Amino acid sequence: MKRMAKGMITNTFLKFFGIGLIASFVFYGCAGDEKTAKGKKLYHHYCSHCHGDSGQQGEGFNWDRMPDPRPKNLASNAEMSTFSDKEIFDTVYRDMRDTEDPVVLDDDNYFAVSTMPTFKYTLSEEEIWGIVAHVRTLHGMSLTFDMVGRKKELEEAYQAAKPEMEAAQAAYEAATEKAEAAQEAYEETLTDEQLEDYEPEDITLPEEAAFLTANGKFEKAKAAFEYFSKRPKKTRIERPDLTISEADLAQQVDLGKKLYTDTYGCNGCHSINDVGGLVGPTLDRAGFRLNPTWIYRWIRNPQAMKKHTRMPNLGASDADARALTYYLGTLRAPIPEAPVPEAE
Length: 344
Ligand code: HEC
Ligand code: HEC
Hints:
Cytochrome Bc1 Complex, Chain D, domain 2, 15 helices, flat, about 55% helix, 3 domains, binds heme C, mainly alpha
């Protein structure tokens, strides 16, 4: 009873100070050239199969297998100089399914070709800017967006928010201690009987609100800096329970089939019955060959299945990944017949 007020203050404390607030600052000082070199490497790994090393149409090994519309000629100055750096960035970054993204809401057409995958969930913003810098060189231009400056700006905002948050934290801690001491001093003055039915009041310290505001600002600045400089964190994908009734299955399979081409453009990279891309393995025997949990995991988090896979994380929700998994489970093409040796 006596400790109630104290307990409440401490709870808020634990919530915020219990989690580590130690910030680690990444050092950067790489010149723009190094960024472009890294962008080139990433381009070759994640883009060349569809766009070609030089950006020319028809060059990538996957070109002939991609459904229309196919990419513009990234090597053409006439076509590509009409795009701003930011527009190229958005083409690679944006996820047209993410309706909370202002870039997507901003887009009048609200349209994207599903076979150009989003790299938002696979690479850092900085890496994508590096790729854009390389794409610029393919048509004889160079990046004008100041990515080093942008990173510095984000880091400075993050660094400035930290001492503000820490000062607010110290003030909140001091105020809490003072309030607790006052509370205890007051309780000392009470007789045992008075203590019996004494209910301490909830104390709201103004320093708490100030701390929450400063901490919110700090977390936001930290996230902005981290989104820029680090790849998205891998989330652990729980083992899904994929049991389903026969009645629901048919409807899920239909949905999965639509998602496969219309929404996620899986056909840009995978083939079924010899139609579709060659970047990933053919999936026409997925129902025999792959277990459903394996399929589901590949869809939700390819990088957890194979660190440097060329399959980007497409940000599929649990519901979408299930529908896709049920659909792939129905693909049971027969083993291709071995060529019959010719009689002599
Ligand atoms: C699976 C094939 C595929 C992969 C992989 C791919 N793209 Fe694309 N990309 C496309 C398609 C298809 C389009 C055409 C989209 C359209 O018409 O709107 C496109 C469009 C673009 C465009 C806009 C120009 C245009 O044709 O409208 C840029 C820029 C681009 N891709 C860059 C990249 C970069 C950079 C990467 C690697 C990080 C990449 N793409 C990976 C298929 C791919
Ligand atoms: C940009 C190309 C690309 C796109 C888009 C893509 N994948 Fe993949 N996928 C791959 C590659 C490459 C692999 C093989 C990975 C490896 O071994 O590195 C793969 C692997 C897989 C596997 C595991 C196959 C096996 O044999 O174990 C499944 C299942 C899969 N993808 C399903 C999908 C689905 C469903 C979609 C759409 C939601 C999709 N992929 C979109 C490139 C792609």
